[in-house]
Amino acid sequence: MVDIAEDGRTWLLSGPASSYALHLTDADELLHLHWGPRIAIEDAEALARDPLPGYWPFESPLDGREEYPVEGGPRFVRPALSVRTEERRGTEWRFGSYATQGDNELHLRFDDDGITITLHYRMRGDVVERWVTVENGGHARVELLRADAATWTLPDRDGWRLSQLHGRWAAESRLTTAPLTYGEKVIGSRRGHTGHQHLPWVALDTDATEEHGEVYGCALGWSGSWRMAVAQLPDARVQITGGAGYDDSGLLLLQPGESYTTPVFAGLWSEGGFGGASRTWHAYQRAYVVPDAERDRPVLFNSWEATNFDISEEQQLALARRAAGIGVELFVVDDGWFGARTSDRAGLGDWTPNPDRFPQGLKSLADQVHGLGMQFGIWVEPEMVNPDSELYRAHPDWVQYQPGRRRTELRNQLVLNLAREDVQHYLWDQLDTLLSSAPIDYVKWDFNRCFTDAGWPGEAYPQRLWVDHVRALYALLDRLRAAHPGVAFESCSGGGGRIDLGVLTRTDQVWTSDNTDPLDRLAIQHGFSQLHPARVMAAWVTDSPNTQLNGRVSPLRFRFVSAMAGVLGIGGDLTEWSAEELAEARRWVDLYKEIRPVVQHGELYRLRPPAGGLSAVQYLRGAEIVVLAWLQAQSHGESAPALRLRGLDPAASYECRETGEVHRGAVLLHHGLRTGLKGDLDATVLRLRRI
Ligand code: GLA
């Protein structure tokens, strides 16, 4: 809800447990008042009466207190907005008006000599969504050098710590926490996509644990280059500023009447520790971000690790029969089905089935897969082109390039300039035709290289391709979803290179990492779960020894229980699995289908982080509880510690389906549940029900 004070210049947005307040001074300075536990409008008014400290020659009282610091005037913090017109640079705004929408949105309008800046706030549960619109109302040209989505201000506390999710290819979303010191910590991507290197998320706390204490979190919904700067200012105030684009060299040029709307930067405050913050993020994404989140995601088979580029209809069918036999619900043909794509050197751009490999097109295979009782899916990478392709031979100017410079090939491919309308039309046409040509239920949408030569010869303001590429991607996905409502989409970028709240508003799940080693995955999944729910986290069981990465040998049990923590998939070469392995796989898939509603839609409690010994997660949904536990190695003959469960009713009793034992809630909460795990790489699934 939104409360407005009598002065019409103090606003309070509240969710079930938290509030956010701001105030406009008589001099039109927009100050941050409060972000934390739920308060009343009278509390916000009291905070608004606190006078600003005075100006000094060397300090500004505005620094660390403004909602959206613009460039210009007495400000020395990082500006969220930097604008250049024919005459000048910077912003000196006057308040225009405010408006509310529904019971949870607030819009504040400011004007600066023909430029309109609107700050938007929307409360969704306890998540505050913020974004900004800048409109050129009269200038011949307005150059947006920087337009961040928001600046977040934290309350005065001693000893802030910063948590982030860093990584690289095959080692994404690893959690790290360190004390914040004076100055700025900047994370982001200058690669054109979200990147494997950082998930666009930070969390700040002073003394929180997994289940207790204050945590602030911020996450950006943008799938291109981005930046977040976490600043500890000279008087120890902390601000987080973020938005699209990595540097300040120019986002867009606004012609008269044109406007730019930033991505959404979402933030939350929780006093339930890191676990509480994650559960709020998960609930928010399931309710407001992920399409059709209430639907279960099917168990899929993906052919990539089994067959690589060497594929044919007959061989895919052999895999499909085995997949159907173990209970798979969605069969996905990965790379290699189209154009001259027999290796990564050719074919990207030509989205028609390879006639040697699929002489009857994809429809024949899709029909047979459907005949086996499974859905059918394919892999595409529409934003790319191999120089060795029909598309590139016909349109060498459709890629990003700098005139007179080398075109940098990574994985033998170039990036199409999706900002061009002819490229947008081509891709729409190809993909719409493809999805109409066969009964396709699912698309794995990949993006396998970064931008390097982001030029656009002939275009007056080539810089805009960074933003317009992402807009075109979103528009294409939205249009395809509308035209083919039965098709689900997965966001992939060499594994987890494009995972963010922006892409998740139009994809059903994400490929978490190309690393399918079940032990490495536990750390990746631990980081991923800080922000994103199990409902979108695709995870496959692959072969042992692991062929993709590290050659680790692991039991099928461990591989399954690791992948069952998210959306289960199988990615091994099933034609090589023994009858016993297939029978065991069938049992795990059946078990997963049973626990799936709890895993995919329940509340997640991280019981023990993956740190060498025993690790475990718990999902809770109504009366149902699922515990997944993994023992990496048993040392010194010691048995694995009991797992203290969370979120239970201490006065209730819980029956464990695996052992038949009945446990008191209070005992499970305080003393814990024994897992019986032993040896190396052991794992288990425990189901409990309140009785
Ligand atoms: C990327 C993906 C893989 C696979 C290959 C195919 O690396 O992450 O899962 O689809 O492309 O080329």
UniProtKB/TrEMBL annotation:
Keywords for the protein's UniProt record, in alphabetical order: Glycosidase, Hydrolase
Domain spans labelled Glycosyl hydrolase family 36 N-terminal: 29-251
A Pfam family: Glyco_hydro_36C
Enzyme Commission designation: 3.2.1.22
Origin superkingdom: Bacteria
Family: Belongs to the glycosyl hydrolase.
GO function term, MF aspect, one: alpha-galactosidase activity
Main EC class the enzyme belongs to: hydrolase
Annotated positions binding substrate: W169, D334, D335, R411, K444, W445, D446, F447, N448, C492, D514
Protein name: Alpha-galactosidase
Xref: InterPro entries: Aldolase_TIM (IPR013785), Alpga-gal_N_sf (IPR038417), Alpha-glycosidase_related (IPR050985), GH (IPR017853), Glyco_hydro_36 (IPR002252), Glyco_hydro_36_C (IPR031705), Glyco_hydro_36_N (IPR031704), Glyco_hydro_b (IPR013780)
One BP annotation, GO: carbohydrate catabolic process
Residues covered by the Glycosyl hydrolase family 36 C-terminal domain: 621-688
Source organism of the structure: Streptomyces broussonetiae
Catalytic activity: Hydrolysis of terminal, non-reducing alpha-D-galactose residues in alpha-D-galactosides, including galactose oligosaccharides, galactomannans and galactolipids
PANTHER family: ALPHA-GALACTOSIDASE C-RELATED (PTHR43053:SF3), GLYCOSIDASE FAMILY 31 (PTHR43053)
Active-site positions on this chain: D446 (nucleophile), D514 (proton donor)
